[in-house]
C-alpha cells in the first residue's frame, strides 16, 4: 500500500481490498473521489484512488469491485434514485473482469453508461455520441481474458447543451499517443482522461480531451518509482494529481500508470463548476464574486441579461403614493456582469438592515434594549390599539434576532397579505389584527415582518426613507453606490430578468416594493461583497468589533439554529460547518452571502428558484448554491 497527501489531494495506490475499504472509511466524508481504478498485479486485485476535499452536501457512492450482475443491479438502483455516474472503469481482475464506479446526487443532465464496448468500435462510438449530441465525460479501456482475450472500453455520456469542444484519440501505441499529445496540447486541448491497457497487440492508450485552457501534465507508461518521483515534483510546481490511471502489464507482472496533474486555477475550475450548476438546476443566469480579506479576487458571470417583457421591476400594482412603474424598453441581451448586473438579493437584504441598525446603535440613536412600541417608542404611532399588549415588550434586539414573538415566515407570513396596502398601512393593519405567538425574547421565529419593522424604525429615527438612509450612511461608507431597492429602481437598466419556477408566483406580481428592509434590495454580486467585507471583523470595518460580534453570535433563543443578527453562524442542512452566511429566496431570485474560516467571502446570485426532486431527497437552488461554493473552495488552489 502506498499513499500520501499531495497539496489538497489524497493519493492512494496498490491497495488491497481491505486497505481500500479502510481508506474509503477515512475519506468518505469531507472529500470526493476524482479517480478510482481497479487493476490486476499478477493474480492479485489492487485499487488506486484519488480524493479531493469537498465540504459540500453532495452525496456519492463508490463501488470498487462489481461483477457484471452486480453492476446491472447497481446501475438500476442509482437510476431509480435519480443519481448519475461520474466515474467508471472496467478492469482485468482475478475474476476475469470487474468494474469500478462512482455515482453522485448532483442535479444535472441525464447520463448514460456504456461498457464492454469492443475497442474496434471506438471511433464509431465517438461518432454515435456526436450524432446524438452527447458529450463523453469519462473514458477507460481494459482487457477481458475469459473465455478469449478481448480489448474493451467504457464511457459515460452526458446529455449536453450543444457544446462540441471534446474529442477522443486512440487506440494508439506509445509513439503515436505521444505525437497526439504534442499536437493537440499545442493546439489548446487539455487531457481529461487517459487510459492504458495491455492487449493482444501490446500496450495501447485512449484519451479524452477538452478544449480548456489549463496548465497540466499528462504522461503514460510510468512505473511506480517514476510516479512517486513526479508526485513529489509536481506538488512543488503547484500541480494537483487528478488521475493515476494504473493498468497491468504481464512481463514482469507489475502496474504501469497514466497520471494527470493539473494546476487548479480559478479561471479554469470556476466557470466549469458554475456551468454544471446552472445546467443542473436550469438557471438562466448566475453572478459570482469572491474576496479574500477585504480584496475582491475573482468574479464570474454566467448567462445573459435580458430585460423583462412585462411591467416594471418595482410593482405592477397601483400602489398608493407610488403609482405604477412604466414598462421597460427591451434592450439586446448582454453577458451577466458581476460588477454591473443587478439581481434581486432577497433576504440577503437582512444583513444590510442589521448593519444599518447597529451603526445607529453605536451612535446612541437607537438602543438594543429600546422598546419601539412602548408609550413613547419610535414606532408607537403604528400601534395605538395593538392586537397584543405584549407588543410593547418587544426590544430592538428581539427584532434583529427574530425573537419578537410572532409573524413567522410561514404560510401566514404578513408580508404576503393585504397586497393592496402600502408598507405603512400593512404595518398598522398587522399590528392591530395579529397577536403574538410567544412572549418577546423567548423563542426564535424567522420573521420577514420583523425586519420590515426595523426598516420603519430606521425611518422614524432618521427622518429619511429606509433606502435613502442605508445608501447614504452605510453603503456609501462601504464604497457601494449602485445598490437600489426595488421600490426605487428605474424600469430600465442593468437589472436581470427574474424567472418563476414551475408553480411559483410571477416575480413581477409580488409586492417587492414593500420588502425593502427584509428582501427588497437590488445589487450586483460585487457590491454585496464590497458591503460584506466591511462588516466582517477583518478590518477596516464600518462597524465596531462589538457590533460585528453581536451580528455573528447565535442569539441563544430557543430554536435559533445559529442565527445571530443578520447572520447565521452554525450548521445548516445544506451549509458547510464553520461558515457564516445569509441566504435569500423569492420567486425569481435566489442568493447566498457566505464567509468561511479560510478568509474567503463569496456572493452568488441567480434569477430563479427551482426544486430538484429525487425519490430520496429534495433540494432547491439554494442547496445548489451551498454545494457550488463548497466545491469551488475545495477545488481551486490559485485565485
Automatic annotation (TrEMBL):
InterPro entries: AmpC-like, Beta-lactam-related, Beta-lactam/transpept-like, Beta-lactam_class-A_AS, PGH-like_rpt
Membrane-spanning residues: none
Residues in Beta-lactamase-related domain copies: 272-616
Signal peptide positions (record): none
Pfam families the record matches: Beta-lactamase, BTRD1
SUPFAM superfamilies registered for this protein in UniProt: beta-lactamase/transpeptidase-like (SSF56601)
Name the UniProt record assigns to this protein: Beta-lactamase-related domain-containing protein
Amino acid at each position: 500500500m502506498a499513499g500520501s497527501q499531495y497539496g489538497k489531494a489524497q493519493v492512494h495506490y496498490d491497495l488491497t481490498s481491505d486497505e481500500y475499504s479502510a481508506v474509503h472509511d477515512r475519506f468518505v466524508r469531507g472529500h470526493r473521489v476524482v479517480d478510482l481504478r481497479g487493476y490486476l498485479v499478477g493474480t492479485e486485485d489492487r485499487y488506486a484512488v484519488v480524493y479531493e476535499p469537498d465540504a459540500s452536501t453532495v452525496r456519492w457512492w463508490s463501488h470498487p469491485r462489481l461483477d457484471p450482475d452486480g453492476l446491472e443491479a447497481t446501475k438500476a438502483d442509482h437510476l431509480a434514485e435519480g443519481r448519475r455516474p461520474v466515474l467508471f472503469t472496467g478492469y482485468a481482475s482475478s475474476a476475469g473482469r470487474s468494474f469500478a464506479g462512482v455515482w453522485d446526487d448532483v442535479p444535472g443532465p441525464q447520463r448514460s453508461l456504456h461498457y464492454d464496448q469492443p475497442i474496434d468500435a471506438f471511433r464509431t462510438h465517438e461518432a454515435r455520441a456526436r450524432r446524438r449530441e452527447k458529450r463523453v465525460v469519462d473514458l477507460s479501456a481494459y482487457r477481458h481474458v475469459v473465455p478469449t482475450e478481448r480489448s474493451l472500453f467504457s464511457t459515460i455520456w452526458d446529455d449536453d447543451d450543444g457544446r462540441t469542444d471534446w474529442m477522443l484519440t486512440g487506440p494508439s501505441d506509445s509513439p503515436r499517443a505521444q505525437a497526439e499529445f504534442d499536437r493537440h496540447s499545442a493546439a489548446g486541448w487539455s487531457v481529461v482522461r487517459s487510459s492504458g491497457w495491455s492487449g493482444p497487440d501490446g500496450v495501447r492508450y485512449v484519451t479524452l480531451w477538452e478544449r480548456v485552457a489549463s496548465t497540466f501534465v499528462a504522461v503514460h507508461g510510468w512505473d511506480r518509482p517514476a510516479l512517486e518521483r513526479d508526485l513529489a515534483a509536481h506538488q512543488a510546481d503547484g500541480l494537483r494529481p487528478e488521475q493515476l490511471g494504473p493498468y497491468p502489464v504481464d512481463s514482469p507482472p507489475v502496474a504501469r500508470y497514466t497520471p494527470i496533474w493539473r494546476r487548479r486555477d480559478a479561471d479554469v475550475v470556476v466557470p466549469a463548476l458554475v456551468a454544471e450548476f446552472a445546467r443542473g438546476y436550469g438557471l438562466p443566469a448566475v453572478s459570482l464574486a469572491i474576496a479574500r480579506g477585504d480584496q475582491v479576487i475573482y468574479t464570474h458571470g454566467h448567462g445573459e441579461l435580458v430585460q423583462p417583457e412585462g411591467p416594471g421591476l418595482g410593482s405592477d400594482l397601483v400602489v398608493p403614493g407610488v403609482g405604477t412603474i412604466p414598462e421597460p424598453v427591451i434592450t439586446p441581451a448582454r453577458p451577466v456582469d458581476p460588477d454591473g448586473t443587478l439581481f434581486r438579493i432577497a433576504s440577503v437584504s437582512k444583513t444590510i438592515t442589521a448593519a444599518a441598525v447597529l451603526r445607529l446603535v453605536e451612535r446612541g440613536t437607537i438602543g438594543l434594549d429600546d422598546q419601539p412600541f412602548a408609550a413613547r417608542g419610535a414606532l408607537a404611532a403604528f400601534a395605538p390599539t395593538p392586537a397584543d399588549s405584549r407588543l410593547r415588550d418587544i426590544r430592538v434586539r428581539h427584532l434583529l434576532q427574530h425573537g419578537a414573538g410572532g409573524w413567522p415566515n410561514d404560510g401566514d407570513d404578513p408580508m404576503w397579505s393585504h397586497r393592496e396596502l402600502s408598507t405603512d398601512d400593512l404595518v398598522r393593519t398587522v399590528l392591530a389584527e395579529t397577536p403574538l405567538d410567544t412572549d418577546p425574547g423567548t423563542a426564535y421565529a424567522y420573521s420577514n415582518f420583523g425586519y420590515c419593522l426595523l426598516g420603519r424604525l430606521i425611518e422614524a429615527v432618521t427622518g429619511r426613507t429606509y433606502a435613502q438612509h442605508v445608501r447614504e450612511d452605510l453603503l456609501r461608507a462601504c464604497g457601494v453606490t449602485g445598490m437600489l431597492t426595488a421600490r426605487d429602481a428605474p424600469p430600465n437598466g442593468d437589472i436581470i430578468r427574474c424567472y418563476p419556477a414551475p408553480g411559483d408566483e410571477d416575480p413581477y406580481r409580488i409586492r417587492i416594493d414593500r420588502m425593502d428592509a427584509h428582501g427588497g434590495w437590488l445589487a450586483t454580486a460585487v457590491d454585496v461583497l464590497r458591503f460584506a467585507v466591511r462588516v466582517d471583523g477583518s478590518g477596516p470595518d464600518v462597524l465596531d468589533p462589538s457590533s460585528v460580534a453581536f451580528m455573528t453570535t447565535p442569539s441563544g433563543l430557543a430554536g435559533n439554529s445559529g442565527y445571530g443578527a443578520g447572520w447565521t453562524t452554525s450548521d445548516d442542512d445544506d451549509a458547510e460547518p464553520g461558515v457564516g452566511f445569509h441566504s435569500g429566496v423569492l420567486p425569481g431570485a435566489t442568493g447566498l452571502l457566505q464567509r468561511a474560516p479560510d478568509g474567503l467571502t463569496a456572493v452568488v446570485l441567480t434569477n430563479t428558484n427551482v426544486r430538484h426532486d429525487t425519490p430520496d431527497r429534495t433540494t432547491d437552488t439554494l442547496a445548489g448554491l451551498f454545494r457550488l461554493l463548497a466545491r469551488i473552495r475545495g477545488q481551486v488552489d490559485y485565485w
